[in-house]
Amino acid sequence: MSDWIRREAVYLWYYLDIQIRQIAPYWALGIVLGSAVSVFGKKYIHGAFSKIGKRKAGWLGVIPASLLGIASPLCMYGTIPIAAAFSQQGIADDMLAAFMMSSILLNPQLILYSGALGREAVLIRCVSCFLCGCCAGWLIRAFYMKKDGSFFDFSGFEEGKNRDTDPNLFLRFIKNVWRNIKATGPMFFLGILLTALYQIHVPKDFVSGLFGKENGFGVLMAATIGVPLYMCGGGTIPLLQEWLWDGMSMGSAAAFMITGPATKITNLGALKIVLGWKRFLIYLLYVVAFAWITGMAVNLFLRV
């Protein structure tokens, strides 16, 4: 028994050391970038969105709204009060939907995290998340803008207290970095631990057999498993990296990277409040459908 425990500990330490060396630099860079954007760039991003929203740009306004959603560093519980304030300023629901959808899926910090998956994965993630935000805005514009009332119900939401208030900019940045570490660190290291256990105990052909085939079933499985498995951006990067090495198709990874953050339990809780049951279910169907279509398109494109 003691020999088994010693052997498991050696294996675990070995794979943990590999994972930390490979992933930790991206996590650290992501925290620095995310805090920098939050402290120095957040008000400019939100100010730009407010200006664009008031110009009544029509269908094209959804495009910069989705891009600014990706640039925003806020979590969904921070984004919704901001969106509520934008709604009170008269910004249309299609632009709010694009901003919120892309903000759920991606942020500057997560882009750097994803660098551990390779340039191809980063590009696919950025493009697919941007398009997911755009399509959400265009669909709302096509089917809901002519109806009475708003697609969202922001009643009860007020903009949260800004914690980046230290008069010293350097100290403000350092405090934000520390909050970022506390918020993302536990899930990041849990993801590394799960990846190390996966490397030790799961056969290498398991993932390739489940997600490796470039067909609709493998992509659908990846999209579906993203719903309960997604912890946080940093926590799933080590697992995704290992799955890609073990034969997961890029299309399946793309589907997972859409359904995961879109159905993260904290995001779902916030969205249920502002959508109501009927539109909340429509949101879930949209996310799964878009993820599946994206995964199939990525596999088809890479095969050509």
Task: Reconstruct the topology from this structure.
Blueprint (H helix, E strand, L loop, with lengths): L1 H52 L8 H10 L4 H13 L4 H13 L2 H7 L4 H25 L25 H33 L3 H7 L4 H14 L3 H13 L4 H13 L2 H39 L1
Report on this structure:
- With 304 residues, this protein is mainly alpha-helical.
- The protein has helices at residues 2-53, 62-71, 76-88, 93-105, 108-114, 119-143, 169-201, 205-211, 216-229, 233-245, 250-262, 265-303.
- Helix 9 runs parallel beside helix 11 (250-262).
- The longest helix has 52 residues, at 2-53.
Overall domain count: 1
Shape, principal axes of CA atoms: globular
Number of strands: 0
Strand content: under 5%
Distance between the termini: 52 Å
**SSE order, as H and E?**
HHHHHHHHHHHH
The major sheet is characterized as: none
User: Are there runs of 5+ residues with pLDDT below 50, and where?
Assistant: none
Number of helices: 12
Helical fraction: over 70%
Oligomer: single chain
Radius of gyration from CA coordinates: 20 Å
- How does the helix and strand content classify structurally? mainly alpha
Calculate the mean pLDDT score and round it.
80
